[in-house]
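Example 3.2
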Amino acid sequence: MPGTTNKRNFIQSLERGLSILSFFSQAGPQLTLTDLSRGVGMGLGSASRYVQTLTELGYLSRDPLTKTYCLAPKVLSLGFGILKNMDLRARIAPYLAEVNREFGVGTQCAILDDTEIVYVERFRSRSLVALDLTIGSRIPAYCTALGRAILAFLDEETKKRIVSRMKIVPLTRFTVAEKGDLLRELEVTRKRGYAVNVQELVLGQAGIAAPIFRGKAVEGAFGFSFPHEAMKNEQWKATLIHRLEEIAEKVSIRETGEDQEPGEDRPKPAPRKTNGDRVQSPPTGRR
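Structure, written as tokens:
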């Protein structure tokens, strides 16, 4: 079991119950008891008892017509409780909002959960190229700038262990599909200081991302996404990369403990735009 250090204190029944809740994110929003039993590798009788317990506790609900189960709203309280108290999200959100307003790009922040990243904050792009992702969405780390920005700055052993567990499926013809190539790309990312992704997750979209540190450990990553054609405008790209590096320095917590006080040197709310204001939107090549 990942993260298990003392098997004597490991409560297997709790692990099984949580595995049922986790399976919904993999298999779909509505599942039958048979689906759950097969999905988590549990006998039908045992699965029935766990599902009934979770239903009575309010974490699952049952549709009497289809006889399927789905996650109940009470599950949200667990996730929202984490997000509400997540210091990383509070530190990065003002900067993401500012860059989103100024450049018109998508801005996002994510943390690593094994081989996937989980979005903890996101501001949508005004461009036509945009994924339907929200806070809590999970996507593979190997094909995203956010995921690579985190993976590249893990210690060598942890990085290789995570990559070895990945099931890499090319999502576009540009996706890095070999683990050896991915490791080499992570090394390039580490030397460069930030990650670049061009049409590997979805055609027509590019992104850059930088790690956020707490002391010497990488805590998460944030980045910007935009139409891939914008990468051809060197001046615009250089400006955006400069902002990326500048923000990464501000939101990372220094090991000395002399981190910023809440609100110190944070972006102020942007003034209301008038018709004469100019916004640095991503170049599209169209007039």
